[in-house]
Amino acid sequence: MTARIIDGKALAQQVRARIADDVTRLKAEHGIQPGLAAVLVGEDPASKVYVGMKHRATEEAGMLSRQVVLPSDTSQADLEGLVDDLNADEQIDGILVQLPLPEHLDPQPIQELIDPGKDVDALNPYTAGRLAVGDPTFLSCTPYGVLELLDHAGVETAGSHVVIVGRSNLVGRPLSVMLTLKGRDATVTLAHSRTRDLGAVCRTADVVVAAVGRIGLITPDMVRPGAVVIDVGTNRGEDGKLVGDVDFEGLREVAGAITPVPGGVGPMTVTMLLQNTLEAARARRGLPRR
Ligand SMILES: Nc1nc(=O)c2c([nH]1)NC[C@@H]1CN(c3ccc(C(=O)N[C@@H](CCC(=O)O)C(=O)O)cc3)C=[N+]21
Description:
Rossmann fold, 3-stranded parallel sheet, 11 strands, binds 5,10-Methenyltetrahydrofolate, hydrolase, multifunctional enzyme
């Protein structure tokens, strides 16, 4: 078996072109330009790259992009003050505080402070709760991108068994909820570092999603031949290259379809951030979300 490669870069281009069209129409018909504020605290090089990519993509979609870069010794009160200002700023529809924050800052109160109407990163507990009760506002960008990739690849999740490895608030946990909603109808196993015999659990899956952040976590013996493998990992190898959580070369011979890293989930994460910002701009003005 040679796996079909699910091309996230191509899908991202397609979806971003549609978003740019929607933005053009929103401007022409309603005089609205959606605006995204991305907040970066400190000098983490990977975070700088990500925020830079988000900035470029936002501008390319015709949206307003505001980048706020704060020194690494910024206080909790100053960061919360900035979020207050962005909440009140009429030009800003979406607010994203890039993670991880420096050690001395607590992300939880900051995420709770973000206006739920502008919570395009979907990390406010209100937003997470709305998803959990089956009435989502914003979907977290990475899991939202995974859903789009599965749809694009023609993977039917209804009735199938999806094993998600990794229980983070950013990816694993919200994805597990999304896949069990009506309409998705998957049976989900949320595996994590304390899961006994991860290989045996993964082998029961129709779809394996790896979202841990460990190189080589998913090996060919852990995947049933023909299963779909989604690699959410973004790790830096010793050579500085971006690598996922999945043994891609090994799994190519086993999986039915697989996402590469780079060029898989990553480009869709940024794309769904744009989608959420567009939805926020519409919803904040009482327009139907799409
Ligand atoms: N508040 C917050 N929200 C996030 O959504 C968030 C975050 N913090 N912190 C870090 C993670 C990571 N993340 C990625 C986004 C795009 C790519 C991406 O586009 N990757 C490209 C290549 C990038 C490269 O070459 O370095 C690809 O996979 O093809 C990857 C990873 C968002 N995150």
